[in-house]
Amino acid sequence: MLPIVFFALIVTWCLTKGNCISYDELKDLKIEFGINLYRHASEAENRTNLVISPASVAISLELLQFGAQGNTFMELQNALGYNIHDPSVQDMLHEVYEGRADSVQGVVAQLACSLFVHTGVQLSPHFAARAMHWANSSLQQADFTDPNRTAAQIQGWITGNLAGQPMSPSPSLSLADGDVHSVPSDGAASPLSRVAVVSTMYFKSTWLKKFSFLDTQILPFTTAEGSTLKVPTMHHTAEVNYGQFQTTTQDAFSVAELPYLGEKLSMFIVLPSHKRTPLSQIESHLSAKTIALWSSGLKRMKMDIFLPRFSIQSLFDLKTVFSALGIRDAFDPITANFKGISEQAGLYISEAIHKAKIEVTEDGTKASGATAMVLLKRSRTPIFKADRPFTFFLRQANTGRCTCCFSSRIIHK
Question: What are the chain's domains?
Answer without folding.
Answer: 26-206+311-359 (3.30.497.10), 213-310+365-410 (2.30.39.10)
